[in-house]
Design brief:
Length: 273
């Protein structure tokens, strides 16, 4: 059993327990349940933003603790002040050290799209996402059957949530459905946790044209962001590179500054030619 199988198996048990503790009718009473979402797709395409989806992440199965005592308030505000287009908040507790309250706290302090980063396998988690203040949810093609992903996408749309579908290979694109707002190419193989940026570059030509295109994982070089944007990507999900710094918000600010500098140089070189 690989790490993804372990996560999904645990998630099934976790969801069953949460259904008993927090019934759907209770979740629907949340102040966030009727609040319109902030569009992730639109924010990724805003010219005044960086395209970066900055992630709040305490730990990971592959790296262990990254920044276990980080403040959601301080980090999330710092990310948005740095020019990030959106926030991603890990809510998985067992493997990533997150919790639903992290996303709700980020919602309290920021008007921007917030992606609930978790392993969604059940409609209940979509209702839960809406109730804690999320604007978008992640559907991972690697751990969902085509029919299951399609049904979850329809249910998410019915709740008003936007959807980021994550793929790691061309074959997984066959699970795409029209309800998807953004497709993310994960450069990390979820079965081995190996990272290779060329995964994004190889798949860009096969991504649907009407979705926001996002490159995820292993991005730590401003030059790589410039290369990915030139290839056609609009979004760049970055977490670990920022979170391993003492001040993630400042790390994000410096990164955005460097990306803009690199892109200005590239634009200048293209103009000369």
């Amino acid at each position: 059993m690989n790490i993804l199988d372990k996560i999904v198996a645990h998630k099934k048990q976790e969801v069953a327990q949460r259904k008993e503790r927090y019934p759907v009718k209770l979740l629907e009473q949340s102040i966030y349940f009727e609040t319109p979402v902030v569009s992730l797709k639109q924010y990724l395409r805003r010219p005044d933003k960086s395209g970066i989806i900055a992630e709040f992440k305490r730990r990971s199965p592959s790296k262990g603790d990254i920044n276990p005592y980080a403040s959601v308030e301080r980090v999330s505000i710092g990310y948005m002040q740095a020019g990030a287009s959106a926030l991603s908040v890990l809510t998985d507790g067992e493997f990533f050290g997150g919790k639903n309250a992290d996303l709700t706290e980020a919602r309290k302090y920021n008007f921007c799209p917030i992606l609930r980063k978790d392993f969604v396998i059940d409609e209940y988690q979509l209702i839960e996402a809406k109730s804690i203040g999320a604007d978008a949810v992640l559907l991972i093609a690697e751990c969902l059957e085509a029919g299951q992903l399609a049904e979850l996408a329809k249910q998410a749309k019915a709740l008003g949530l936007e959807i980021l579908m994550e793929v790691h290979s061309a074959g997984q694109l066959s699970k795409y459905v029209p309800e998807i707002d953004a497709v993310g190419v994960n450069n990390r193989d979820l079965t081995t946790f190996n990272v290779d940026i060329t995964t994004s570059l190889e798949l860009i030509g096969q991504l649907p044209e009407d979705v926001a295109r996002v490159s995820e994982s292993g991005i730590s070089d401003p030059q790589v962001v410039a290369e990915l944007r030139h290839a056609g990507y609009e979004g760049f999900l970055i977490g670990e590179h920022f979170m391993k710094q003492a001040e993630p918000g400042k790390a994000c600010q410096e990164f955005v500054k460097q990306v803009r500098h690199v892109e200005a140089l590239l634009d200048g070189a293209i103009a000369k030619n």
